[in-house]
Design goal:
- The chain has 298 residues and is of the alpha/beta class.
- 23% of the residues lie in helices and 13% in strands.
- It has a four-stranded mixed β-sheet with strand order 7-6-5-8. A three-stranded antiparallel β-sheet has the order 2-4-3. A two-stranded parallel sheet has the order 1-9.
- The longest helix is centred in the first third of the chain and has 11 residues, at 9-19.
- It is globular.
- The two termini are 16 Å apart.
Length: 298
């Protein structure tokens, strides 16, 4: 089963409080933050950025509890916002502590699709990037990137993970908002820092991605990228799964659907489409799982 929401700031705080865990961002003493999310004083003093992507700024002191660096906090963002600046190492450690695990890419994608195995989006008919009556169903960028976000979806940056309705399996926020780590490694270099270092798959895109792929990633359920285990940023989070993994096979899609997936996400997206299925874990089930883990029942 896959949890219905990403791990929240409050969830992660409970883990840190219980274990004194230090995230990779804390160990490095900095993390990347999207420049439009930073106050002027922090932006002025932060002169390091990603080569070719100056809107990603290296901010001293940015980590899960100070998402925008020094002086920032999680006021009004504890319960309904995903923890960010999470590396794969951080995600893996949290899931193990909670008696769970990261989902595989195939599990994540099939759960995100909902009951329609050919869906590219978790809503409506699964084929339209917009919801019923043309309403936005995901938090991505609208406008001229990276200078102007028109906020047609209601948000300029990270949104609450229940900002939009769930899919037919009850999952919230799988497309857009923040990337989510999976258990799987990439079969090749997907643009990460090193082809020699293992890279792990992230799914779903984030708030800086686009509806059509004209900049950054095209946000849908096959959207994917990879990064090293110690990498995290302002738009990386995760959700947990439980059970051994795998399960029943999803009914095979038709050739037209496979071709569309190939054009949208490449051969690895097709392989994910043909992978194993997954089900959803509710918040009540997650709470019971946590309780059992810390009463020695797991």
């Amino acid at each position: 089963k896959i949890h219905e929401t990403p791990v929240s700031n409050r969830d992660f705080r409970a883990y840190v409080k219980a274990t004194k865990y230090k995230t990779d961002a804390e160990k490095y003493s900095w993390s990347f933050v999207f420049n439009a999310s930073l106050p002027p004083d922090i932006l002025k003093e932060s002169d390091q950025h990603v080569e070719g992507a100056p809107y990603w700024v290296a901010v001293e002191g940015a980590y899960w509890r100070q998402p925008e660096g020094r002086g920032s906090n999680l006021k009004e963002r504890w319960d309904d916002y995903p923890v960010v600046h999470a590396s794969w190492n951080d995600a893996q450690a949290y899931c193990e502590w909670a008696g769970m695990r990261l989902p595989t890419e195939a599990e994540w994608e099939n759960a995100a699709r909902g009951q329609d195995p050919g869906a590219f989006y978790p809503w409506s008919d699964g084929q339209s990037s917009m919801g019923k009556d043309g309403k936005w169903q995901m938090n991505i960028w609208q406008g001229n990137f990276p200078t102007k976000n028109t906020e047609e979806d209601g948000y300029a940056g990270i949104a609450p993970f229940r900002a939009y309705p769930p899919n037919s399996y009850g999952l919230f926020g799988t497309v857009g908002n923040v990337w989510e780590w999976t258990a799987d490694t990439s079969r090749g270099n997907m643009g990460g820092p090193s082809a020699e270092e293992a890279q792990y798959i992230l799914k779903g895109g984030s708030f800086i991605d686009s509806i059509d792929g004209s900049f950054n990633h095209k946000a849908n359920v096959v959207t994917r990228m990879a990064n090293t285990a110690d990498s995290g940023s302002y738009n990386t989070g995760f959700r947990c799964a439980t059970g051994r993994g795998g399960g029943g096979k999803t009914p095979l899609p038709d050739q037209e659907t496979i071709q569309k997936v190939l054009e949208t996400g490449g051969i690895e997206a097709v392989q994910a489409l043909l992978g194993d299925g997954a089900s959803v874990m509710t918040a009540k089930e997650l709470e019971a799982r946590h309780k059992a883990a810390h009463e020695g029942e797991l």
